[in-house]
UniProtKB/TrEMBL annotation:
HAMAP family: Ac_CoA_synth. The modification N6-acetyllysine is found at residue 612. One of its GO terms (biological process) is acetyl-CoA biosynthetic process from acetate. PROSITE patterns: AMP_BINDING. Its cofactor is Mg(2+). Residues 31-83 form the Acetyl-coenzyme A synthetase N-terminal domain. Acetylated. Deacetylation by the SIR2-homolog deacetylase activates the enzyme. Residues 90-472 form the AMP-dependent synthetase/ligase domain. Residues 534-612 form the AMP-binding enzyme C-terminal domain. GO terms for cellular component: cytosol. This is Acetyl-coenzyme A synthetase. The keyword Lipid metabolism does not apply.
Amino acid sequence: MSKESLANLMTEERRFAPPTELAAHANITAAAYEAADADRLAFWAEQARRLSWEQEPTQTLDWSNPPFATWFADGRLNVAYNCVDRHVEAGHGDRVAIHFEGEPGDSRAITYAELQREVSRAAHALTELGVEAGDRVAIYLPMIPEAVFAMLACARIGAPHSVVFGGFSAEALATRIVDADARVVITSDGGWRRGAPAALKPAVDEALTRPGTEAVRSVLVVRRTGQEVPWHEGRDVWWHELVDRQPEQHTPQAFDAEHPLFILYTSGTTGKPKGILHTTGGYLTQVAYTHHAVFDLKPESDVYWCTADVGWVTGHSYIVYGPLANGATEVLYEGTPNTPHNGRWWEIVQKYGVTLLYTAPTAIRTCMKWGDDVPAGFDLGSLRLLGSVGEPINPEAWIWYRKHIGGDRVPVVDTWWQTETGGIMISPLPGVTHAKPGSAQVPLPGISATVVDDDGNEVANGSGGYLALTEPWPSMLRTIWGDDQRYLDTYWSRFPGRYFAGDGAKKDADGDIWLLGRVDDVMLVSGHNISTTEVESALVSHPAIAEAAVVGATDPQTTQAIVAFVILRGGAAENPGLVDALRAHVAKELGPIAKPKRILPVDELPKTRSGKIMRRLLRDVAENRELGDVTTLTDSTVMDLIQAKLPTAA
Ligand code: ATP
Ligand code: MG
């Protein structure tokens, strides 16, 4: 970004008060902000007491060697005990922990007592394979219960896991195995994807032919689809043969609060993924607290569903560790939202009576594209709260979500955070905050975030700049695995003493925070810094548009020119006047400076496997360049289709 701050183009007047009933019984009230403001560290020490410690910590934060933090360093605990055993001991063994829904329609309800047995057996099995505390285990599985068992089993024996999204290639898997120096890989024959079994095991076999993977001793294979699998005698072992014969009782051992819990690679939206290291006590404290606070979880009555994949941080923090630490009942769904029909998700909400739903803007916009009539065909009356994460949610997508999924009655919480932050950082509180569509609004109690300009000075309300986190937080990354220097350079050198998130942001007139996309994506048009997010949101606010991706392409007159790629909404048709109408619409919403020079209707946008738009590839297209790294792209044919469209439109 240049010296000039990010323009603040969009205004949003709509406000939604918390539902009276929810506010009256909310887990968190405004008093939490006061408590945290009065004494931030005491507030977090208090939250740490939601966990069961074998040895209670007496220390909270140690920031004597910044930016290397320790939290609760003299405490000792076992994460799996906290997520499983203690609920059984408290008499909740019969409560369903996981309602598993397979893509083909098979299902399984797993109680906390069963979860305890499964995790215990898996822990014994890993020990039999020679895994010791500190050894890394790679997990490459579909969305099946064994993914949760495996993660918790690793945590139980103190072996940091590195979960690799099941949609990644052998190459991507190999890089992560090598970087984490894993000793064991846990995988399956395959998983169900779009109505057919998709193989996983062959990718592991291929990955393990790459140099640097020699340390992998064993491959533990879950049978999910029953498809044929190549077998390496002596290395490969079936889960059902090894795990099922283990004792169902296992004594969890306590580990130091700063013992590594997992390494997870970022989505790679902006470049080469980073191996983010999270540890035990601070991480679990923050994910448990934020899950309780932001989703208002009532473990006895709520049915929670986070649609993310366990391969992403959202799956780690808000499918596995946060909800299970809180004793939640949750849904785990294996497949795609449109198998066998576009209403599959809503059918699942209806079937299990889901009350709390957490998903991503990409999914919401896809549903907008499929049409309003799809969710209308199901009873979604059980829902009482909706969450969003992963990208800025366009105000119009927020409104659609609230109206068509939430029946215009339930609160929507837009949660900003990153793999690096481990847990939610900025979000409305459903019983407190008057929500604004499109804004993540306020840092959670105990979290300090602001927006700064190029020189690191806090911007005034009504201005834009960079999002910065000004105080350490319990679930912060501890480093980039094996690369402290990259940790320092990436996050702590831009604004000394403060964490640089890499996201553009603005504060509105009320001081609420709006996320405006990646700093790398900000456009410079005739001397103005313009956010891609705001132009995209203006396009999505046109009734014909479901989704938009905007980039700045080099332009001789204006430095950069705005190029927009748009997907039409269900029912809308491409017509000759549409492009002009859209340009006029953006000019009206944001001002003439933000009017796209070119608008191209497309059928799909390039996305990472976690569903985020990869603008850098669209910029390559718009500037007629060779495409950059496409390995984290979901479907590379999307780029061919977009490129084919290009010459005809101007
Ligand atoms: P890489 O760092 O490798 O480029 P990534 O940043 O996509 O990958 P993640 O950690 O999965 O990997 O994503 C975090 C990013 O997602 C945030 O920095 C932000 O840009 C975006 N994000 C997440 N939630 C929100 C939200 N509620 N509003 C706006 N942006 C969000
Ligand atoms: Mg990132």
